[in-house]
Amino acid sequence: MMRPRFLLFLTVVAVLAGCALERKPVDDAEKNLNTAVNSVNASNEDVTRFIYFVPEEQDLIEAELSPGILSRNEFLPENDLMLFATADWETAADQIANNQAQALLIHHAALAAVNQAELQTFFEGKGLVVAGIGIPGLELAQFLGYPALFTSTWSADDGYTTPYYFYLYSLEISGSQAEIDRLQALGWRPGEALPSGVVVSDSVGVGYGASTDSLLGNGRITPMFRLIAAHGQN
């Protein structure tokens, strides 16, 4: 197995007018997933929520990646963060739609239960940070509709041979919505160069980020949460 390594890409592109451009079962305490799973009071409006979307079949969740393990990470309460785990997509989508979540973590065994169209809307329109746990980076970027955000030096994802890793992406688009719509209708997506001959006629700004790291070893959950929080602040 290749040695896991950390990659951080946080790129801001300003486009101005006139420019061309070993699985283990989880314990019984985690059977009820539609609940906040750390000690932070869910009614506290100052608390930022991360949603962890997991499979209904809980024996598919590796013990080290269980909601209970992740929620006990000290970085969360120290930074007024909480982890909410659910296996119900409608529950997750409702919280995101109502601006109750800054980030969505998706367990690799739960990706098939995600409504792709809704997730793409949240990613584009709400600045939702999306992290895939054990999901190959290119696959996740394609699922979000932005394959160009996958900028790893690995040609695919052969570097990670276990599910103990993450990729996360963030996106912020600003400026003229009409111009953004026009450019996207011409085939442009953030992270890509503009199609040949296309000129931007109004102000458009794009900020996007991508990060990856291994989750193997003690303390590796903390860097993931730290990066998610950082992406959400940009």
Question: What does this molecule look like?
Answer:
Strands 1-8-7-6-5-3-4-2 form an 8-stranded mixed sheet, with helices on both faces. The radius of gyration is 18 Å and the shape is globular. It has one domain (7-233). 25% of the residues lie in helices and 24% in strands. The protein has helices at residues 67-71, 75-78, 89-97, 116-125, 137-144, 177-185, 221-233; strands at 7-15, 35-36, 48-53, 81-86, 103-107, 129-133, 165-175, 204-214. The chain is α/β, with parallel strands linked by helices and 234 residues long.
Q: Helices, strands, pairings?
A:
Blueprint (H helix, E strand, L loop, with lengths): L6 E9 L19 E2 L11 E6 L13 H5 L3 H4 L2 E6 L2 H9 L5 E5 L8 H10 L3 E5 L3 H8 L20 E11 L1 H9 L18 E11 L6 H13 L1
Parallel strand pairs: 3-4, 3-5, 5-6
Antiparallel strand pairs: 1-8, 2-4, 6-7, 7-8
Question: What percentage of the residues does DSSP assign to strands (E)?
Answer: 15-25%
Radius of gyration: 18 Å
- The tally of helices reads 7
In helices, the fraction of residues equals 10-25%
Spatial separation of the terminal alpha carbons? 33 Å
Please state the structural category. alpha/beta
- What's the SSE pattern? EEEHHEHEHEHEHEH
Number of strands: 8
Shape: globular
Total domains, how many? 1
The major pleated sheet works out as:
8 strands, mixed
How are the strands ordered across the major sheet? 1-8-7-6-5-3-4-2
Q: Which regions are unreliable across 5 or more consecutive residues at pLDDT < 50?
A: 1-32, 34-44
